[in-house]
Amino acid sequence: MSRQAKPGSKPYRAQLRDRLAALGFPEAAIPGQVAKNLVVECRIPPRTAWRLAAELSLDVAAHQYNAVTGDPRAGMRGTRIWEYEQWPERGVRPTLAALRVLAQVYGTDWKCLLSLRDLEQLPAKDLAEYHAEAQPAPAPEPEAPPAAAVARTGTRTDEELGGSALDAAILLTKTNVDDVQLEDLWADLDFVGGAYTRTAPDSILGQLAVIEQRTSALLKGRQRPKQTQELLLVGAKSTAMMAWIAGDLGRYRLSRELNSAAWLYTQYADDFLARRWVRTSQARVAFWAGNGIESAKLAADGLNYQVGGRLTDAPLILAEARGWSSVQAEPQVLDAIARWATIEDPDVGAGGDDSFFNITKDRRHYMAGNSLLSVGQASAALREFTTAREAFEKLSLENRWEAMDPMIRIDTGRAHLRLDDLDGAAAQVAPLLDAGVGKQPDMVRAMLKLLATELSGPRWRSAATARHLAEALLDAHASARP
């Protein structure tokens, strides 16, 4: 096996399939051999191993599960299959009925989806069924109460039945969380979100990690249902914010993983506002990671979760425009900008109480200008950048995002270049270079390099001012690493 392929990874599995084929294994037998190797050699639990051997993602496996049951709208989700795969260390124990359906999806016997450790944790009834059944079972009918259980219920006294129900209900009152803890978590999130504009990204990331760790630790215990939902919302927001900040630091792989975790929180919290938080973060990270179309689609999906005032739509609409601008899709960009213009508010503040995800006026107009510039609308972009500059200067120092000043200057300079105004571009960027760029988020470094590249192009290559400016921008790019 190639040393470059991580054990269990997709390249590893592809190489393993090739080796098995070369040894004469028929195609139908290869998935079972792959699953066996993943369990024995890679120490991957059997339910995960068989899914990987079938080359199915969690969501695709859930879709096929629902298809096997005969109802494509059935409730199986990728997140629930993931929980089944985490058991017994954590997660949820799969029913035997669920195992039988999964076995059909993966092309195996349901018993192959259980390890020795799983068997040790099975209820006695399920273990007895495991030993009693010699052959793979057909797809299950909807589960009905076992006859023995019905018989036992009929022999229990009213006192026993009432006491059992009361004991179960009392469990709902037990909790490891109180209102003070929840208020503290939200207050800490609000504080960190407000400090984002004036605090180093790595410091913010560390503070958010502490909040997320506190939240996940509490979720391992028992709460009342409403408290569990509150914790899931805190987990969704803190993790989405961490993904946002990791993107500022150029750590896009970490950002994607954090956003995946944040989306999982939202699935269980079942809250529209939480889904908007995560889609906003996902769209931003995707754009700066170079996936513009994905960014636009994520932003558009976020708009499906209607909540709050109309101006709270602005970050997602502008993210949609920016995503399409990366592929010069002018009609889509202009459509999005037009939708944003109908809801834009002259107020310089954020469009809602949440100052982290609901961006201020300077950032809204900057995003609009950046999108317009990317599709050749230099004059319109320059007007947006001018508005962004004016709004930025009206903000109090504590509400200014420090990265906004260099980003406005750089893109205003780029707009001047598109209008054949080299002196205007130099006038915008020179004060930034004279003062020193300092440590900046990854997107500022990307914009510095982009402007230097444009100044080095054929149009300006012969101009001494452009050459000197490009060299200074590249020096600033090298020194601005966060």
Task: Describe the protein.
The protein is mainly α. It contains 24 helices and no strands. It has helices spanning 10-22, 30-40, 46-53, 58-68, 78-86, 96-106, 116-121, 124-132, 147-155, 158-171, 179-195, 201-219, 225-248, 252-269, 272-288, 292-302, 314-325, 330-341, 361-374, 378-394, 404-418, 422-435, 442-455, 464-479. Helix 17 (314-325) packs antiparallel against helix 18 (330-341) and helix 21 runs parallel beside helix 23. Residues 135-154 have low confidence and may be disordered.
Please outline what is shown here.
Helices cover 67% and strands 0% of the residues.
Task: Report the structural category.
Answer: mainly alpha
Number of helices: 24
Shape: globular
Query: What is the CA–CA distance across the termini?
Result: 39 Å
SSE sequence, one letter per element: HHHHHHHHHHHHHHHHHHHHHHHH
What oligomeric arrangement do these chains adopt? single chain
Which residues form runs of ≥5 with pLDDT under 50? 135-154
Mean pLDDT level: 85
The biggest sheet, with number of strands, parallel, antiparallel or mixed sense and barrel status, is:
none
Beta-strand residue percentage: under 5%
Topology, please?
Elements: H1 10-22, H2 30-40, H3 46-53, H4 58-68, H5 78-86, H6 96-106, H7 116-121, H8 124-132, H9 147-155, H10 158-171, H11 179-195, H12 201-219, H13 225-248, H14 252-269, H15 272-288, H16 292-302, H17 314-325, H18 330-341, H19 361-374, H20 378-394, H21 404-418, H22 422-435, H23 442-455, H24 464-479
